[in-house]
Amino acid sequence: MAALRAALLGVLLGCAAAALIPAADVKVEVLQKPFLCHRRTKWGDMMLVHYEGFLQSDGSMFHSTHKHNNGQPMWFTLGIREAIKGWDKGLKDMCVGEKRKLTIPPALAYGKEGKGALCSFPLTGLGSCACYPK
């Protein structure tokens, strides 16, 4: 019984310690704002973006819509995990024409099994629309 109590106490203390460690979050830098912003993006909006992905460790580019996507921007729906979690967090409340740089920790990007490092994404919001079913 004492061993069971000790094990449970260890689990509880481990959970409490993990809860005290703040989770890494997305760093958002607004590089350029448009002159006018008629509407900000929100969950469920379709977004059209040009982006480049860089590893923070050595600055190497691992993807670019300008180079790897036939020069075409990418469409995705905000907030439903069509893109990495860090994009869903960092692109909310963005205006068309706004440029942002997102610095995303591995847990919100590709994880340890993917790129395994901080990633940065300079992005340009080219368009968005609220495309809700009628």
From TrEMBL:
Leader peptide range in chain numbering: 1-18
Pfam families from the UniProt entry: FKBP_C (PF00254)
UniProt GO molecular function: peptidyl-prolyl cis-trans isomerase activity
Catalytic activity as recorded in UniProt: [protein]-peptidylproline (omega=180) = [protein]-peptidylproline (omega=0)
Main enzyme class: isomerase
Family annotation (SUPFAM superfamilies): FKBP-like
Gene3D superfamilies: 3.10.50.40
EC number: 5.2.1.8
InterPro entries associated with the record: PPIase_dom_sf (IPR046357), PPIase_FKBP (IPR052273), PPIase_FKBP_dom (IPR001179)
Keyword Signal annotated: yes
Keyword line: Glycoprotein, Isomerase, Repeat, Rotamase, Signal
Domain PPIase FKBP-type: residue ranges: 44-134
Protein name in the entry: peptidylprolyl isomerase
Organism for this UniProt entry: Phasianus colchicus
Lineage, highest ranks first: Eukaryota, Metazoa, Chordata, Craniata, Vertebrata
